[in-house]
Amino acid sequence: MSDPHDHTDAPVLRGERLSKLYPDGEVAALRGVSLQVAAGESVAVVGPSGCGKTTLLHLLGGLDRPTEGEVFFRGTPLAKLDGDQYRAREIGFVFQSFHLLTTLSAVENIQIPMFETPWTPRERASRAEELIKQVGMAHRRNHRPTRLSVGERQRIAIARALANEPSVLLADEPTGNLDSRNQDEILRLLEDLRRSRGLTLVTVTHSAEVAAAAGRVVRMRDGLVVET
Ligand SMILES: Nc1ncnc2c1ncn2[C@@H]1O[C@H](COP(=O)(O)OP(=O)(O)OP(=O)(O)O)[C@@H](O)[C@H]1O
Q1: Of the four, 18, 60, 119, 149, which is 20 to 30 A from 74 by CA?
Q2: Does the predicted interface ipTM exceed a cut of 0.95?
Q3: Rounded mean pLDDT of 155-183?
Q4: Ligand 1 mean position, distance from CA 96 (Å)
């Protein structure tokens, strides 16, 4: 697998004529989308409900496969990469509804993806402590998610997404459940993390504020990119 810190001129992610047909109802969610995302870029994907934003994010993250076309990660087709390794090591996912495990503490949630790595328990624990500090949540390390505010839950989910030091963060409506103050804080956190870690960030959003905070906006309509 390629070195995530190897900065070449090739885009970190590239979609080539991606189409996605969902079999039930034969919905054409994507109808030939091509786009490139450079290393370290922050891209917001916007467009009306149902235009294919989440589908595109899932294809980029290897959570689903295109019906036609191909996604490339640093020039290599995803079809040629080990899908589990790609999702576990190269990509971090952030979701609107956090998807934290309620039976685990905040710091334990951050460690979940680390079980895919050869790190020792001590290494996992110390990396999780570092991450929980970076997202400003060390004082809540032992709290279960149900005892955290929604903004705090998203901070923990972001730390978890970074657990395996991915080079790309894919976020689907990361502020969709947050009020405007929490939204601003999460946007600031994501931007700080992008800069400090050289992360590439692709965010699907309905929020004009989130789109305005990104370096570039990709606009979709009816399964197509109409502006990039
Ligand atoms: N698993 C699925 N099976 C069938 N159709 C699907 C599936 N997932 C999505 N779709 C359909 O594909 C189209 C694109 O959906 P997608 O979730 O990508 O849009 P979106 O732009 O992210 O929408 P929203 O902003 O409402 O989240 C929609 O018509 C949706 O109903």
Answers
A1: 119
A2: yes
A3: 95
A4: 15
